[in-house]
Protein backbone atom coordinates (compact mmCIF):
# COMPACT_ATOMS: atom_id res chain seq x y z
CA UNK A 1 0.00 0.00 0.00
CA UNK A 2 1.21 3.52 -0.76
CA UNK A 3 0.94 6.50 1.48
CA UNK A 4 2.00 10.08 0.97
CA UNK A 5 4.55 11.58 3.31
CA UNK A 6 5.21 15.31 3.49
CA UNK A 7 8.92 15.89 3.73
CA UNK A 8 10.26 19.15 5.14
CA UNK A 9 12.90 20.78 3.00
CA UNK A 10 12.00 19.08 -0.27
CA UNK A 11 10.19 20.69 -3.17
CA UNK A 12 8.77 17.47 -4.51
CA UNK A 13 4.99 17.68 -4.48
CA UNK A 14 4.75 14.31 -2.76
CA UNK A 15 6.98 11.39 -2.04
CA UNK A 16 5.17 8.12 -1.79
CA UNK A 17 6.47 5.42 0.44
CA UNK A 18 5.92 1.83 -0.47
CA UNK A 19 6.16 -1.21 1.67
CA UNK A 20 4.72 0.31 4.82
CA UNK A 21 2.58 -2.16 6.67
CA UNK A 22 -0.62 -1.39 8.54
CA UNK A 23 0.61 -2.19 11.97
CA UNK A 24 1.03 -0.57 15.32
CA UNK A 25 4.23 -2.55 15.70
CA UNK A 26 7.16 -0.57 17.08
CA UNK A 27 9.38 -2.43 14.61
CA UNK A 28 7.85 -0.57 11.64
CA UNK A 29 10.81 0.93 9.73
CA UNK A 30 11.15 4.68 9.86
CA UNK A 31 11.79 6.85 6.81
CA UNK A 32 15.12 8.65 6.84
CA UNK A 33 13.77 12.00 5.64
CA UNK A 34 17.21 13.64 5.71
CA UNK A 35 18.65 10.99 3.38
CA UNK A 36 15.66 11.17 1.04
CA UNK A 37 15.78 14.97 0.92
CA UNK A 38 19.52 14.82 0.15
CA UNK A 39 18.94 12.26 -2.63
CA UNK A 40 16.22 14.35 -4.25
CA UNK A 41 18.32 17.52 -3.93
CA UNK A 42 21.11 15.81 -5.89
CA UNK A 43 18.67 15.22 -8.75
CA UNK A 44 17.40 18.80 -8.62
CA UNK A 45 21.01 19.99 -8.92
CA UNK A 46 21.50 18.36 -12.32
CA UNK A 47 22.84 20.94 -14.77
CA UNK A 48 20.50 22.10 -17.55
CA UNK A 49 17.45 20.52 -15.93
CA UNK A 50 14.51 22.82 -15.23
CA UNK A 51 12.06 21.76 -12.52
CA UNK A 52 8.44 22.89 -12.61
CA UNK A 53 7.65 24.21 -9.14
CA UNK A 54 3.87 24.51 -9.41
CA UNK A 55 2.62 21.88 -11.81
CA UNK A 56 -1.04 21.23 -12.61
CA UNK A 57 -0.13 17.54 -12.71
CA UNK A 58 -0.69 16.74 -9.03
CA UNK A 59 -0.48 13.03 -9.74
CA UNK A 60 3.22 13.40 -10.72
CA UNK A 61 5.76 13.79 -7.92
CA UNK A 62 7.92 16.16 -9.97
CA UNK A 63 7.98 17.48 -13.53
CA UNK A 64 11.36 18.29 -15.07
CA UNK A 65 12.43 19.52 -18.48
CA UNK A 66 15.80 18.01 -19.36
CA UNK A 67 17.79 18.83 -22.52
CA UNK A 68 16.21 15.87 -24.30
CA UNK A 69 12.74 15.38 -22.80
CA UNK A 70 9.92 16.30 -20.51
CA UNK A 71 10.29 13.97 -17.54
CA UNK A 72 7.54 12.78 -15.20
CA UNK A 73 9.37 11.78 -12.02
CA UNK A 74 7.83 9.27 -9.66
CA UNK A 75 9.81 9.08 -6.40
CA UNK A 76 9.68 6.04 -4.15
CA UNK A 77 11.34 5.51 -0.78
CA UNK A 78 11.74 1.80 -0.10
CA UNK A 79 11.95 0.24 3.32
CA UNK A 80 13.36 -3.25 3.58
CA UNK A 81 10.78 -5.99 3.03
CA UNK A 82 10.95 -9.75 3.16
CA UNK A 83 9.44 -12.38 0.90
CA UNK A 84 7.67 -11.50 -2.34
CA UNK A 85 6.41 -8.13 -1.10
CA UNK A 86 9.37 -6.34 -2.70
CA UNK A 87 8.47 -7.77 -6.14
CA UNK A 88 4.85 -6.61 -5.86
CA UNK A 89 6.04 -3.19 -4.67
CA UNK A 90 8.42 -2.87 -7.63
CA UNK A 91 5.81 -3.72 -10.27
CA UNK A 92 3.29 -1.34 -8.72
CA UNK A 93 5.84 1.49 -8.77
CA UNK A 94 6.65 0.80 -12.44
CA UNK A 95 2.94 0.78 -13.36
CA UNK A 96 2.43 4.04 -11.44
CA UNK A 97 5.35 5.75 -13.21
CA UNK A 98 4.23 4.62 -16.66
CA UNK A 99 0.63 5.58 -16.00
CA UNK A 100 1.40 9.07 -14.71
CA UNK A 101 3.62 9.85 -17.72
CA UNK A 102 0.92 8.61 -20.12
CA UNK A 103 -1.76 10.68 -18.39
CA UNK A 104 0.46 13.75 -18.44
CA UNK A 105 1.14 13.31 -22.17
CA UNK A 106 -2.59 12.90 -22.82
CA UNK A 107 -3.33 16.12 -20.92
CA UNK A 108 -0.61 18.00 -22.83
CA UNK A 109 -2.06 16.97 -26.17
CA UNK A 110 -0.80 15.34 -29.36
CA UNK A 111 1.52 18.20 -30.37
CA UNK A 112 3.48 18.19 -27.10
CA UNK A 113 6.86 16.46 -26.88
CA UNK A 114 6.95 12.96 -25.45
CA UNK A 115 6.85 12.58 -21.68
CA UNK A 116 9.45 10.17 -20.32
CA UNK A 117 8.55 8.21 -17.18
CA UNK A 118 11.35 8.06 -14.60
CA UNK A 119 11.09 6.09 -11.37
CA UNK A 120 13.53 7.40 -8.74
CA UNK A 121 14.34 4.85 -6.02
CA UNK A 122 15.75 5.63 -2.60
CA UNK A 123 16.01 3.94 0.78
CA UNK A 124 17.50 0.80 2.32
CA UNK A 125 15.01 -1.48 0.55
CA UNK A 126 15.62 -0.05 -2.92
CA UNK A 127 17.07 -2.60 -5.34
CA UNK A 128 20.73 -2.34 -6.24
CA UNK A 129 21.09 -0.99 -9.77
CA UNK A 130 24.62 -1.91 -10.90
CA UNK A 131 24.77 0.82 -13.55
CA UNK A 132 22.60 3.22 -11.56
CA UNK A 133 19.68 2.73 -13.95
CA UNK A 134 17.71 0.24 -16.01
CA UNK A 135 14.83 0.32 -18.45
CA UNK A 136 11.81 -1.76 -17.44
CA UNK A 137 8.66 -1.77 -19.60
CA UNK A 138 9.44 1.70 -20.95
CA UNK A 139 10.16 3.22 -17.52
CA UNK A 140 13.66 4.45 -16.71
CA UNK A 141 14.29 3.19 -13.15
CA UNK A 142 17.12 5.16 -11.52
CA UNK A 143 19.11 5.26 -8.30
CA UNK A 144 18.38 8.51 -6.43
CA UNK A 145 21.81 8.49 -4.78
CA UNK A 146 23.80 8.23 -8.02
CA UNK A 147 22.39 10.62 -10.66
CA UNK A 148 25.86 10.91 -12.21
CA UNK A 149 25.39 7.34 -13.50
CA UNK A 150 22.16 7.98 -15.38
CA UNK A 151 21.67 11.71 -16.04
CA UNK A 152 23.67 11.39 -19.29
CA UNK A 153 20.66 9.54 -20.73
CA UNK A 154 18.82 12.88 -20.91
CA UNK A 155 21.60 15.23 -22.03
CA UNK A 156 21.39 14.91 -25.82
CA UNK A 157 20.13 18.40 -26.69
CA UNK A 158 16.89 17.73 -28.50
CA UNK A 159 15.28 20.80 -26.95
CA UNK A 160 16.98 24.18 -27.21
CA UNK A 161 17.52 26.16 -23.98
CA UNK A 162 14.83 28.61 -25.10
CA UNK A 163 12.38 25.79 -25.86
CA UNK A 164 13.12 24.15 -22.47
CA UNK A 165 12.39 27.42 -20.65
CA UNK A 166 9.20 27.89 -22.67
CA UNK A 167 8.08 24.34 -21.92
CA UNK A 168 8.86 24.65 -18.20
CA UNK A 169 6.90 27.90 -18.00
CA UNK A 170 3.94 26.42 -19.90
CA UNK A 171 3.86 23.45 -17.49
CA UNK A 172 3.39 25.69 -14.42
CA UNK A 173 0.09 26.67 -12.88
Largest sheet: 8 strands, mixed
Structural class: alpha/beta
Q: In percent terms, what proportion of residues is strand?
A: 15-25%
Helix/strand order, N-terminal first: EEHEEEHEEEH
Span of the ends, CA to CA:
30 Å
Global morphology: globular
pLDDT < 50 runs, ≥5 residues: 1-28
Cα-atom Rg, whole angstroms?
16 Å
Please count the helical segments. Answer: 3
Extended strand count = 8
- Round the mean pLDDT to the nearest integer and report it: 79
Percentage of residues assigned to helices: 25-40%
What does this structure look like?
Strands 1, 2, 3, 4, 5, 6, 7 and 8 form an eight-stranded mixed beta sheet that branches. This protein is α/β, with parallel strands linked by helices. It starts with a strand and ends with a helix. The chain has three helices and eight strands.
Strand and helix map with partners:
Elements: E1 3-5, E2 15-18, H1 33-44, E3 50-52, E4 62-65, E5 70-78, H2 85-108, E6 115-122, E7 133-136, E8 139-143, H3 161-170
Parallel strand pairs: 2-5, 5-6, 6-8
Antiparallel strand pairs: 1-2, 3-4, 4-5, 7-8
